Amino acid sequence: MEGYLDQRLIGQRFTIKATDLLDGVTFYGIFYHLGAATSLHVGDLVEVTHVDAHGLTVTVITRHH
Fold it and tell me: Helix or strand or coil: residue 24?
């Protein structure tokens, strides 16, 4: 069962807030660091593409201007 909750986050979309960039994000009471292939900015809409012990990997869906 371990990891099931984390895997449910794949496909989850959310908008980046300043605290997400500084502190990470919390889903279902679990704290995650964020990682991405490109830089993340406040207001970006992102989607979780991978979850592992290091945190969440996200892809920018819509870049905030």
Answer: coil
Mean pLDDT, consecutive 10-residue stretches, the chain (65 aa), reads 74 96 91 94 97 92 89
* CA-wise closest residue to 33 among 14, 18, 52, 47: 52
Q: Using only C-alpha atoms, what is the Rg of the chain?
A: 11
C-alpha to C-alpha distance for 32 and 25, rounded to whole angstroms:
5
> What is 17-42 written as a DSSP string?
-HHHHHH-EEETTEEE-EE-SS---T
Strand 45-52 relative to strand 55-62, pairing: antiparallel
pTM of the entire structure? 0.88
